[in-house]
Amino acid sequence: xxxxxxxxxxxxxxxxxxxxxxxxxxxxxxxxxxxxxxECYKRIFKKFNVIKKGKKWSTDKINTLLITNxxxxxxxxxxxxxxxxxxxxxxxxxxxxxxxLSKIAxxxxxxxxxxxxxxxxxxxxxxxxxxxxKI
Length: 135
Description:
44% helix; alpha/beta
């Protein structure tokens, strides 16, 4: 928990992406901390040929997806949904970094969901080595 005495008079600028999650902001405000939010970036997904990429990834026997945010998960679902590679996509193991993403993955239709405890690079690399995923 935050040290309320130390943070009481702090003014915090929260830099986040467009439509970023509100949990941090709500929690800080609930603890009487002044929070100012700046949406300083917007994700723009790269356009690619789903048939070409789906064929390549399935031919290359890609079997695990590492996804660290819900936007990417929803975008993959959207672009592959009406393709011949949608079944392949949902057969892949999906490695996510929090239980919230696990719930979204399950709702979309993934069956083999692995939850990592932390999102930092070093932890994820070691975690992947431990579960013997092929990346």
